[in-house]
Each structure stands twice: as structure tokens, then as C-alpha cells.
Amino acid sequence: MLKQRVITAVILASVLMGALTWLPASWFAVLVMFVFAAGAWEWAALCGITNGKIRMLYVDAVLVCGGLLWWLGQDAMLAVLVLSALWWCFSFRLVLVYPSPQALLGSSGAL
């Protein structure tokens, strides 16, 4: 099992390095969008979404968001990166106080 994973990792790393080296930025963005679409499809399944139409709607939403980020440029990507970092810091804090999230969010108990 480990051997298969290592072989897969070597192949994918080679493909990534080749894509970074030889593809123009726009084609690399298209490749990344395909990877995002596959990841969104799998993530929807992990979230328990079994309806194919709803899963496809989620994938479409991810692709639209990714396309908008590409179109808006680096300033938008920097803003998303900062907001994502803040979100993950907040989420990490919620995990740390898991048995009692009211300590962080107040007494309402609504997340």
C-alpha cells in the first residue's frame, strides 16, 4: 500500500514540476481548476452530498469562485488568503475550546 502511494506521489510531483516549468500561466490555471473541480467533487461526497445535481452545483460554485479570483488578479487572491488565514485561526481556537464553545462565542451556544 505504501509503495503504491509513493509511486503515485512521484508521478504527480513530476507532472506538477513539468506543468510549472513548461505551461504558460493561463494553461496552468486551467490545470489547477481541473484539480479544484475534482477536489470539490470529492469534498462534496465527504460532506454527505449524494445527489449528483447538488454535487455538480457545488463544483460549479467552486469553479466560478476560482475563475473570479483569477480574473480579479493578485489583490483579490491576497485578500482571500488573509481572510482564509483569519478563518482558520478562529476555527483552530474553536477546536481548542471544543467541549465548551460558549467560552469563545458567548452564552447563546449558536455557532
SS field, number of helical segments:
5
Task: From the alpha carbons, calculate the radius of gyration and give it in angstroms.
Answer: 19 Å
Q: Distance between the terminal alpha carbons, to the nearest Å?
A: 40 Å
Helix content: over 70%
Q: What fraction of the residues are assigned to beta strands by DSSP?
A: under 5%
Low-confidence stretches: none
Q: Quick check: average pLDDT?
A: 82
The gross shape turns out to be extended
| Order of helix and strand elements from N to C terminus | HHHHH
Structural class by secondary-structure content: mainly alpha
The tally of strands reads 0
Main β sheet profile: none
Structure description:
The chain is an all-alpha fold and 111 residues long. The protein is 82% helix and 0% strand. It contains five helices and no strands. Helix 2 runs antiparallel to helix 3. The radius of gyration is 19 Å and the shape is extended. The termini are far apart. The mean pLDDT is 82.
